[in-house]
Amino acid sequence: MSAKIVIVGNGSFSGDEADKIDSCDLVIRFNGCRSAGEGGIRTDVVAVSNTGRPAATMIRHNAWRNHPAVKNAAEIWGVRDALKFAELKPTIAIQYPELDDFCDDHTEEFASFSADGGKSFAVIPGRYHDLLDFELRALMPGGYVVPSSGLRAVAYVIGEVAVPGDQVLLAGFSHQGWDGQPFAAEQALIRISGSVE
What we know:
This protein is of the alpha/beta class and about 200 residues long.
């Protein structure tokens, strides 16, 4: 039987999207789950940036650990492959010296948190990062640091989670965050509509 999988970004939502999101079979949110509320409340997976300052801020503070969406999630996904980020570290140190802790790995802390809470834990394989780099560089002349968590989650869901017949939907993808990520090129790549249809 086909499933509806929705990947929920941290952008804005129309009035009826919350109910549509909550009616899906698998709901994936990101990091601090800012989408929970206006973007529905169901949360099956929380995909986290598991390296750098955002990772440390989340995993070491009770506000994140006790967030209702995080507590209700059955799975935590790390979107950053530790080996890939170790590979990137020397280049980032030269090109972006202000990002001195960007590749600091907190994967084991998230894995321990997940195990203690009875949640599954997985890391999105680095090959999706490589694939997205290849595709994004064909779309934009300028540089960027890394693809966004959202795009990596989309690639992973399409590549490994969804099965033939499943619908993969996007909601709340109007958000544009940190300028080290190529949001315009990402939107061109996956033709984001910004709503659940």
